[in-house]
Specification:
alpha+beta; two-stranded antiparallel sheet; 42% helix
Length: 125
């Protein structure tokens, strides 16, 4: 007879060592610690206890740094969700994002609309 110890993560994934299990369960801690905030459909801040659930259900997102943008992009890619940074040329965009049939960088949209308004004003004078 052989006795085996199996370590089971919160989501049911099994591991041979406690270290592997711990690392798996804490693989997204950097996202939470970096200050990323997920928002639900009513723009309420979501609890970060289950980061995968947040990523799957969020309709708003605050990303404070380029490094956190990379972490969130990798999370979204890993779980099969559309990322705000589908185009790698914009991977470093940070700030607020909202999902409206596609991810919109709110800060970029504000700047675009402000430029448009200023252009209209300058041509109206």
């Amino acid at each position: 007879m052989e006795i085996r110890t199996t370590y089971v993560a919160d989501d049911g994934t099994e591991f041979d060592t406690e270290k592997e299990c711990y690392e798996y369960e804490h693989r997204y801690d950097d996202i939470v610690e970096s200050g990323v905030v997920f928002f639900d459909s009513k723009h309420n801040r979501m609890s970060s206890n289950d980061i995968i659930d947040c990523a799957e259900r969020c309709l708003g997102l605050y990303v404070p740094t380029e490094e956190s943008a990379k972490l969130v992009h990798e999370l979204f890619r890993t779980i099969g969700c559309e990322s705000p940074w589908s185009d790698y040329s914009s991977i470093f965009d940070i700030g607020y994002f909202v999902y409206e049939n596609e991810w919109v960088a709110i800060d970029k949209e504000i700047n675009r609309l402000t430029d448009l308004r200023n252009s209209l004003i300058s041509h109206a004078l």
